[in-house]
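User: My advisor asked me to double-check a structure prediction for Secretion system C-terminal sorting domain-containing protein before group meeting. I don't want to rely on an old file, so could you generate it fresh from this sequence?
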Amino acid sequence: MKKFYLLTMLFLFAFVTNAQIKVQGFPRNDLQLKSSPKNQSAKNVTTIPINFSDIQYWVGTGTNEAAFVVQWNDGKNPDALVWGFRWNGTATGEEMLKAIASADHRFYSLLYQGTGPYGTAIGGFGFDLNGTGTNALYKSGNVTYPYYPVSGIVNTTSYDFDDYAAADTNDHWQSGWMTNGYWSYWVKDPTDPDFGYSGVGATSRTLVNGSYDVWNFSAGFSDTPISSTMTPVSPYVASTNYANGYFMVNEEWFGHTNGSVNFIDSNGNVNYRVYSNANNNHAFGATTQYGTIYGDKFYFISKQAADGGDTQYTPGGRLVIANAQTMQKIAGFNNIGGGDGRSFVGVNEHKGYIGASNGIYTFDIDNLQVGTLIPTTGGGSQYAGQIGNMIRTSQYVFAVKQSTGVLVINPNTDTVITTIAGSFHSVVQAKDGSVWAIQDQKLVKINPTTFATTVYNIPTTKYIGAWGAWNAGSLTASSQSNTLYWINSISSFVSGTQIVKFDVTSGTFNETFAAIPGQTGTYKQIPYGAALRVNPITDELILNTTESGYGAHYQNNWIHTFSNTGTLTNTKKLNDYYWFPAIAVFPDNTTPVVNNTFPTQVNVNNITTIDLKTVISDTDNLSAAIVKTVKSNSNSAAVSATINSNDELIITPQGNGTANIVVSFNSNGKVVDKTLSVTSSTSVLGMSEVKKLEFSIYPNPVTDILNIRTQEKVLNVSVYDMSGKMVNAQFSNGQVNVSMLPKGVYILIAKTEKAVYQQKLIKN
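Assistant: Sure, here is a fresh prediction for Secretion system C-terminal sorting domain-containing protein from the sequence you gave:
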């Protein structure tokens, strides 16, 4: 009998000490805890450490409220952090956890979800204590392939919680199940006298209004009392001040993540994946290679619509448009005309051009619609008409086309009017307004209105450019000085180690202007993507590099800042990851400013010319690229107003009277209007009118070819419709081809070496 009694007691003891032990509701017969959680209490907690009125960060909406507490017990302060959760209807502890992890980008978790009747197992919690944004986990010491939380969650498919460590050792992080310890789950409802160990997991835990959930890590399976000091978490506020600093658009890791954008503020702090943070883990397409700001919108161009290997971020398409001030998504497009994405340029406040692997497509900015192919810009297949970068001058759009040259497009008619032949890789506009294209060991100057070219041979080095793995190229221009910069190359496929400077005014090269850092050791720093851009405000050069080699070497990425004298002033190393940075983009903070030399009122009795180039400026954009148009004319019977190819406003009296002429100045999508009040009188024949007698056009009316008769050399000719809009008409050898114009009345303005002439023409 005694023996039977002893066996019974041993069985009951074993049952109590093993079978009754639960971790988050999971029976754990494998654990021998120092004391059974079933019998534990919230030691030393006789009063509630924090009231709901003290909680600062509330997630969710509703009339019910609960407190969510995480206590790491890792020696880092503050330790026990508190969030608040609001809801209506029913909610579980798991739903509260996920809602907070999704909302607060500083907080992240490791979960094993869908684990049978016991629900989700919580394996780890982390918090970004130092604000660096490096929320990532390494598994089993593998730093080559980090795990990044999506909506605050890293998922695993087994109880391998002990194998994970935080990438940032300064973060709060605790995880475990079999070795390190475990996350114990304590709860308190309003009717409970104190905190109690939960017999169920977060999935089965039903919240009630006024309840508390405390996650308390039991390091080494030891008991740790619930803290008597709980710190309310301040609300997470995503960075929305994108005025002071610059963006770095990233290709990201092909086969693993879609494209992203980081923001480097003026203090040198890197805000990672700012678009994803602002848009619930949405991203761009695969291999994001280009970005530009036009007006109030940020246009991101990716080569493909989505990366099939990305399970963390929602892809956005080949074209993604965001608010440039907040990074909030506006629209996304998988299809941009059938090809892969290359570039984007704003044409006017209503229209843009999309550069693709099969040509150039119009884009309706007002209605956010991809338009049609611009004739002759494509090639008939997805990769037969590759377009590189594009620029908008005050008159035209210049676009690089693979193996063909630089296409010159009239933005008023969306037609290619000429091509500068050559195997160019990139095109830019200098401060003086000249356009420059580059290929291998040749730099070509293009007149922005006559398209005449001048060739400058690069003395000893080359320019690298590849169409097989296209990027926007390192050729870049200063807005503050008349200079160009690019990175040299050892060959057509291998980048060099020097930044080259070209003085546009003197036509001289400095091929050793600045050296790329990190050229010692086996693995050296190499430029990646476009690699080089000039800050329009500070005139500093921004250079991004990665590490040569293969595999994990590409996790090393740097951003260097050089002064305009070539001095290295700052170096920033990014958090280790395969960012593959593509291109730096600078905010557009200011609008164009019209100075007081622009008149508000004029009296005219003959043709009057106002040079608009001298009256307009923009501190963070190229003044030579500002587009000038006549927006409206209140009385065309009294006066006509047009803008010629030299950016001059031509006012011609048509009769007696007054008119208000509104001139619009568009600087990179930001527009200001100025009104000029004109009083016209035709009673006196002025000298310019006399000169008109020495100038004639014929035949008039005209069907196709218009002849110009004058004793002076004609420099350029522009044709405008009656609204003041310049139309497409090609001038050559004293003749103007108007065959493509619709029937109607037009104004022809011809500029010679001595005068400006204006004639009315009729197109039959």
